[in-house]
Amino acid sequence: xxxxSLPTFRFQPSSDNPLHTLLYFTHNGSEPAAxxxxxxxxxxxxxxxxxxGLVDVHYASVIYGEVLxxxxxxxxxxxxxxxRAQGGVATVVPMTxxxxxxxxxxxxxxxxxxxxxxxxxxxxxxxxxxxxxxxxPSTSQIDQDSSSGGIAELTPKVxxxxxxxxxxxxxxxxxxxxxxxxxxxxxxxxxxxxxxRASKHESTVVIYEPNMARVEVEDRKxxxxxxxxxxxxxxxxxxMPKQNPFNTxxxxxxVGSTGMHSTPTSPPPPPPGGSRPP
Length: 278
Fold this sequence. Notes:
This protein has one domain (8-133, 151-254). It has helices at residues 80-85, 141-145, 220-239, and strands at 8-13, 20-26, 33-39, 50-56, 63-69, 72-74, 91-95, 99-104, 109-116, 124-130, 157-164, 172-181, 184-198, 203-207, 253-254. A hairpin with a 6-residue loop joins strand 4 (50-56) and strand 5. By secondary structure, the chain is mainly β. Strands 1-2-3-4-5-8-9-10-11-12-13-14 form a 12-stranded antiparallel β-barrel. The protein has a 3-stranded antiparallel beta sheet with strand order 6-7-15, with no helix packed on it. 11% of the residues lie in helices and 37% in strands. It has 3 helices and 15 strands. Residues 242-278 are annotated as: Disordered.
Protein backbone atom coordinates (compact mmCIF):
# COMPACT_ATOMS: atom_id res chain seq x y z
CA UNK A 1 0.00 0.00 0.00
CA UNK A 2 1.49 3.33 -1.11
CA UNK A 3 1.62 6.27 1.30
CA UNK A 4 -1.09 8.72 0.19
CA SER A 5 0.86 11.62 1.69
CA LEU A 6 3.63 11.27 -0.93
CA PRO A 7 3.52 13.20 -4.24
CA THR A 8 1.53 10.90 -6.53
CA PHE A 9 0.64 10.97 -10.22
CA ARG A 10 -2.24 8.77 -11.35
CA PHE A 11 -2.51 7.92 -15.05
CA GLN A 12 -6.17 7.77 -16.13
CA PRO A 13 -7.30 7.27 -19.74
CA SER A 14 -9.41 10.13 -21.03
CA SER A 15 -13.09 9.38 -21.53
CA ASP A 16 -13.16 11.87 -24.44
CA ASN A 17 -10.17 10.67 -26.45
CA PRO A 18 -8.67 7.15 -26.39
CA LEU A 19 -5.29 8.60 -27.44
CA HIS A 20 -5.09 10.82 -24.35
CA THR A 21 -4.18 9.98 -20.76
CA LEU A 22 -4.70 12.46 -17.92
CA LEU A 23 -2.18 12.61 -15.09
CA TYR A 24 -3.80 13.60 -11.79
CA PHE A 25 -1.55 14.88 -9.00
CA THR A 26 -2.16 14.57 -5.28
CA HIS A 27 0.04 15.31 -2.25
CA ASN A 28 -0.59 15.02 1.49
CA GLY A 29 -4.09 13.72 0.85
CA SER A 30 -5.13 16.64 -1.36
CA GLU A 31 -7.91 16.30 -3.92
CA PRO A 32 -6.52 14.97 -7.25
CA ALA A 33 -5.94 17.76 -9.78
CA ALA A 34 -5.15 17.28 -13.47
CA UNK A 35 -1.47 18.21 -13.94
CA UNK A 36 -0.32 16.78 -17.29
CA UNK A 37 -1.73 15.25 -20.45
CA UNK A 38 -0.10 12.33 -22.27
CA UNK A 39 -0.83 12.53 -25.98
CA UNK A 40 -0.37 9.83 -28.60
CA UNK A 41 -0.72 10.47 -32.34
CA UNK A 42 -3.21 8.56 -34.45
CA UNK A 43 -1.73 5.41 -35.99
CA UNK A 44 -2.07 6.92 -39.47
CA UNK A 45 0.12 9.86 -38.40
CA UNK A 46 2.84 7.76 -36.79
CA UNK A 47 3.46 4.80 -39.11
CA UNK A 48 6.42 2.58 -38.21
CA UNK A 49 7.18 4.51 -35.03
CA UNK A 50 6.20 4.87 -31.38
CA UNK A 51 5.46 8.43 -30.29
CA UNK A 52 4.37 9.98 -27.01
CA GLY A 53 4.23 13.53 -25.68
CA LEU A 54 3.72 15.06 -22.24
CA VAL A 55 2.01 18.45 -22.41
CA ASP A 56 0.37 20.94 -20.10
CA VAL A 57 -3.19 19.86 -19.33
CA HIS A 58 -4.57 23.37 -19.97
CA TYR A 59 -2.22 24.58 -22.74
CA ALA A 60 -1.45 21.77 -25.19
CA SER A 61 1.11 23.96 -27.01
CA VAL A 62 3.35 23.76 -23.92
CA ILE A 63 5.32 20.55 -24.46
CA TYR A 64 7.34 19.27 -21.51
CA GLY A 65 8.83 16.23 -23.19
CA GLU A 66 8.47 13.79 -26.04
CA VAL A 67 9.50 10.28 -27.01
CA LEU A 68 9.98 9.17 -30.61
CA UNK A 69 11.21 5.63 -31.20
CA UNK A 70 11.87 3.98 -34.53
CA UNK A 71 11.96 0.19 -34.30
CA UNK A 72 14.89 -1.99 -35.20
CA UNK A 73 14.03 -4.36 -38.02
CA UNK A 74 15.06 -7.99 -38.03
CA UNK A 75 14.39 -10.87 -40.38
CA UNK A 76 12.88 -13.93 -38.68
CA UNK A 77 13.87 -17.45 -39.68
CA UNK A 78 11.11 -18.94 -41.83
CA UNK A 79 10.52 -22.49 -42.94
CA UNK A 80 10.06 -23.21 -46.64
CA UNK A 81 6.30 -23.62 -46.07
CA UNK A 82 6.05 -20.27 -44.28
CA UNK A 83 8.05 -18.60 -47.03
CA ARG A 84 5.75 -20.04 -49.70
CA ALA A 85 2.72 -18.85 -47.73
CA GLN A 86 4.09 -15.31 -47.99
CA GLY A 87 4.50 -15.58 -51.75
CA GLY A 88 8.23 -16.21 -51.56
CA VAL A 89 8.89 -12.75 -50.14
CA ALA A 90 11.02 -12.59 -47.00
CA THR A 91 9.76 -10.07 -44.47
CA VAL A 92 11.14 -8.16 -41.53
CA VAL A 93 9.52 -7.56 -38.14
CA PRO A 94 9.91 -4.61 -35.75
CA MET A 95 11.91 -4.99 -32.55
CA THR A 96 12.14 -2.57 -29.64
CA UNK A 97 15.62 -0.99 -29.49
CA UNK A 98 17.64 -1.18 -26.27
CA UNK A 99 18.05 2.61 -26.09
CA UNK A 100 14.90 4.76 -25.84
CA UNK A 101 15.39 8.56 -26.17
CA UNK A 102 13.41 10.95 -23.95
CA UNK A 103 13.54 14.55 -25.24
CA UNK A 104 13.23 17.53 -22.90
CA UNK A 105 12.80 21.16 -23.97
CA UNK A 106 13.86 24.56 -22.67
CA UNK A 107 16.68 23.75 -22.39
CA UNK A 108 16.75 21.08 -25.08
CA UNK A 109 18.38 17.80 -24.14
CA UNK A 110 17.91 14.11 -24.87
CA UNK A 111 18.02 11.60 -22.02
CA UNK A 112 18.74 8.05 -23.30
CA UNK A 113 16.91 5.30 -21.42
CA UNK A 114 19.10 2.20 -21.70
CA UNK A 115 17.83 -1.34 -21.20
CA UNK A 116 20.03 -3.60 -19.04
CA UNK A 117 18.99 -7.19 -19.71
CA UNK A 118 19.44 -9.88 -17.11
CA UNK A 119 19.17 -13.63 -17.52
CA UNK A 120 18.54 -14.37 -13.85
CA UNK A 121 17.43 -11.10 -12.26
CA UNK A 122 14.79 -8.63 -13.37
CA UNK A 123 15.51 -6.23 -16.23
CA UNK A 124 16.32 -2.59 -15.54
CA UNK A 125 16.50 0.69 -17.47
CA UNK A 126 19.19 3.28 -16.73
CA UNK A 127 19.38 7.00 -17.45
CA UNK A 128 21.53 9.97 -16.45
CA UNK A 129 20.57 13.54 -15.55
CA UNK A 130 23.08 16.42 -15.42
CA UNK A 131 23.58 17.94 -11.99
CA UNK A 132 23.46 21.46 -13.44
CA UNK A 133 21.26 22.30 -16.42
CA UNK A 134 20.63 26.05 -16.40
CA UNK A 135 23.33 28.63 -17.08
CA UNK A 136 24.06 31.00 -14.22
CA PRO A 137 23.23 34.69 -14.84
CA SER A 138 26.29 36.53 -16.11
CA THR A 139 27.15 39.86 -17.73
CA SER A 140 30.15 38.28 -19.45
CA GLN A 141 29.84 38.15 -23.25
CA ILE A 142 31.93 34.97 -23.22
CA ASP A 143 29.44 33.28 -20.90
CA GLN A 144 26.51 34.46 -22.98
CA ASP A 145 28.05 33.22 -26.23
CA SER A 146 29.25 29.89 -24.86
CA SER A 147 27.49 26.69 -25.82
CA SER A 148 24.94 25.57 -23.26
CA GLY A 149 25.84 21.93 -23.80
CA GLY A 150 29.60 21.84 -23.24
CA ILE A 151 31.52 18.58 -23.34
CA ALA A 152 29.23 15.79 -22.21
CA GLU A 153 31.99 13.80 -20.49
CA LEU A 154 32.91 16.84 -18.35
CA THR A 155 29.35 17.39 -17.15
CA PRO A 156 28.71 15.84 -13.72
CA LYS A 157 25.66 13.60 -13.92
CA VAL A 158 23.48 11.67 -11.52
CA UNK A 159 22.71 8.04 -12.41
CA UNK A 160 19.25 6.52 -12.07
CA UNK A 161 17.80 3.07 -12.66
CA UNK A 162 14.22 1.84 -13.11
CA UNK A 163 14.13 -1.78 -11.96
CA UNK A 164 11.30 -4.29 -12.03
CA UNK A 165 10.40 -5.41 -8.53
CA UNK A 166 10.68 -9.02 -9.73
CA UNK A 167 11.08 -10.83 -13.04
CA UNK A 168 7.34 -11.23 -13.55
CA UNK A 169 6.21 -8.07 -11.79
CA UNK A 170 4.56 -5.16 -13.60
CA UNK A 171 5.75 -2.78 -10.87
CA UNK A 172 9.07 -0.92 -10.77
CA UNK A 173 11.18 1.18 -8.43
CA UNK A 174 13.52 3.96 -9.54
CA UNK A 175 16.79 4.27 -7.65
CA UNK A 176 19.56 6.84 -7.57
CA UNK A 177 22.60 4.59 -8.08
CA UNK A 178 25.62 6.89 -8.34
CA UNK A 179 27.33 9.67 -10.27
CA UNK A 180 29.48 10.08 -13.34
CA UNK A 181 32.17 12.62 -14.21
CA UNK A 182 34.97 12.63 -16.74
CA UNK A 183 33.75 9.34 -18.21
CA UNK A 184 34.06 7.57 -14.85
CA UNK A 185 31.12 6.30 -12.81
CA UNK A 186 31.03 6.04 -9.03
CA UNK A 187 28.63 3.53 -7.53
CA UNK A 188 26.60 4.48 -4.45
CA UNK A 189 24.10 2.54 -2.33
CA UNK A 190 20.71 2.52 -4.05
CA UNK A 191 18.45 5.36 -2.94
CA UNK A 192 14.73 5.05 -3.72
CA UNK A 193 13.50 7.99 -5.80
CA UNK A 194 10.16 6.86 -7.25
CA UNK A 195 7.83 3.87 -7.43
CA UNK A 196 5.65 2.74 -10.32
CA ARG A 197 2.55 0.60 -9.91
CA ALA A 198 0.82 -0.71 -13.04
CA SER A 199 -2.64 -2.11 -13.63
CA LYS A 200 -4.71 -2.75 -16.71
CA HIS A 201 -6.70 0.49 -16.59
CA GLU A 202 -4.66 2.80 -14.36
CA SER A 203 -1.05 3.25 -13.29
CA THR A 204 0.67 5.36 -10.66
CA VAL A 205 4.03 7.07 -10.20
CA VAL A 206 4.89 8.00 -6.61
CA ILE A 207 7.80 10.33 -5.85
CA TYR A 208 9.59 9.20 -2.68
CA GLU A 209 9.85 12.67 -1.16
CA PRO A 210 11.95 11.78 1.93
CA ASN A 211 14.94 11.00 -0.32
CA MET A 212 14.64 13.88 -2.79
CA ALA A 213 16.94 16.12 -0.72
CA ARG A 214 19.73 13.68 -1.63
CA VAL A 215 19.09 14.02 -5.38
CA GLU A 216 21.50 16.71 -6.60
CA VAL A 217 19.72 17.51 -9.86
CA GLU A 218 19.07 21.18 -10.58
CA ASP A 219 16.29 20.60 -13.12
CA ARG A 220 13.69 18.98 -10.86
CA LYS A 221 10.92 19.55 -13.40
CA UNK A 222 13.02 17.80 -16.05
CA UNK A 223 13.61 14.84 -13.72
CA UNK A 224 9.88 14.64 -13.01
CA UNK A 225 9.09 14.63 -16.74
CA UNK A 226 11.67 11.91 -17.41
CA UNK A 227 10.28 9.75 -14.61
CA UNK A 228 6.72 10.06 -15.93
CA UNK A 229 7.54 9.55 -19.62
CA UNK A 230 10.02 6.73 -19.05
CA UNK A 231 7.58 4.84 -16.83
CA UNK A 232 4.87 5.02 -19.50
CA UNK A 233 7.25 4.00 -22.31
CA UNK A 234 8.56 1.01 -20.35
CA UNK A 235 4.98 -0.02 -19.63
CA UNK A 236 3.94 0.24 -23.29
CA UNK A 237 6.96 -1.59 -24.72
CA UNK A 238 8.00 -4.01 -21.97
CA UNK A 239 5.79 -4.41 -18.90
CA MET A 240 2.37 -4.53 -20.59
CA PRO A 241 3.22 -4.37 -24.31
CA LYS A 242 0.67 -2.58 -26.44
CA GLN A 243 -0.58 -4.34 -29.54
CA ASN A 244 1.38 -3.07 -32.56
CA PRO A 245 3.12 -0.24 -30.63
CA PHE A 246 5.05 0.87 -33.73
CA ASN A 247 1.93 1.20 -35.90
CA THR A 248 3.22 -1.11 -38.60
CA UNK A 249 0.93 -1.95 -41.48
CA UNK A 250 -0.71 -5.35 -41.72
CA UNK A 251 1.07 -6.26 -44.96
CA UNK A 252 4.54 -7.86 -44.75
CA UNK A 253 7.40 -5.46 -45.45
CA UNK A 254 9.85 -6.90 -48.01
CA VAL A 255 13.52 -6.94 -47.08
CA GLY A 256 15.33 -4.26 -49.06
CA SER A 257 12.51 -1.74 -48.87
CA THR A 258 13.54 1.82 -48.11
CA GLY A 259 14.71 2.11 -44.52
CA MET A 260 14.46 -1.64 -43.92
CA HIS A 261 17.37 -3.96 -43.17
CA SER A 262 17.75 -7.65 -42.61
CA THR A 263 19.77 -6.91 -39.46
CA PRO A 264 18.86 -4.53 -36.62
CA THR A 265 19.69 -0.85 -37.09
CA SER A 266 19.75 1.96 -34.56
CA PRO A 267 17.06 4.66 -34.74
CA PRO A 268 18.05 8.30 -35.39
CA PRO A 269 17.61 10.81 -32.56
CA PRO A 270 14.19 12.48 -32.27
CA PRO A 271 13.77 15.81 -34.05
CA PRO A 272 14.19 18.96 -31.94
CA GLY A 273 11.21 21.16 -31.14
CA GLY A 274 8.61 22.01 -28.56
CA SER A 275 8.81 24.13 -25.46
CA ARG A 276 8.95 23.58 -21.73
CA PRO A 277 8.51 26.24 -19.10
CA PRO A 278 11.49 26.54 -16.73
